[in-house]
Automatic annotation (TrEMBL):
Pfam families, A to Z: MarR (PF01047)
SMART domains: HTH_MARR
Lineage: Bacteria, Pseudomonadati, Pseudomonadota, Alphaproteobacteria, Sphingomonadales
Location of the HTH marR-type domain: 5-134
UniProt keyword list: DNA-binding, Transcription, Transcription regulation
Protein name: MarR family winged helix-turn-helix transcriptional regulator
Length: 163
């Protein structure tokens, strides 16, 4: 059972979320808030619906998270010029130190996960996982593999490491 690639991938994802959630607390955030800030950083001006889809949560859940981050001064809503009912979300300057701290913490989690794996094998692992993601994304939601990968909710760690 442990050599089943789907089981291993799911277990690794679960363990990453667990470690990132623990690390996010050190930055004064919850894991979901950390992922939301990363998503806004990568997609400045995105609206609540797009972010909810990206994070794979209901829009009301995203709205509550955004409300808390806005109240904390980390996110601001700006009117969407294309839709008077929607808001575009942006990080504030106050969010930048927390993003930097979160990135440093994420790098430590990633480094720990890759301990004992040489650079060539790490590159191969990234390549293989990227191809698997592309294979699974093909035809997803009418998007091609490249576009679907941009919207993948499992890409959160990369948000914080690669910015």
């Amino acid at each position: 059972m442990h050599d089943n690639v789907a089981f291993l991938a799911n277990d690794i994802g679960r363990l990453f979320r667990k470690r990132f959630d623990a690390a996010s607390g050190q930055a004064g955030l919850t894991g979901p808030q950390w992922r939301l800030l990363g998503a806004i950083q990568r997609n400045p001006g995105a609206n609540q619906i797009a972010l909810a889809n990206f994070l794979d949560v209901e829009p009301i859940t995203a709205a509550r998270m955004i409300d808390r981050l806005e109240k904390a001064g980390l996110v601001e809503r700006r009117p969407d010029p294309g839709d008077r009912r929607a808001w575009c979300l942006h990080l504030t300057e106050a969010a930048q130190p927390q993003i930097a701290e979160a990135r440093a913490l994420a790098e430590k989690v990633i480094a720990r996960s890759l301990a004992g794996i040489d650079e060539n094998d790490q590159a191969l692992l990234r390549d293989l996982l990227g191809r698997m993601r592309d294979n699974l994304s093909e035809g997803c939601c009418g998007l091609d593999a490249t576009e679907a990968a941009k919207h993948s909710s499992d890409d959160d760690a990369k948000v914080l490491i690669n910015g």
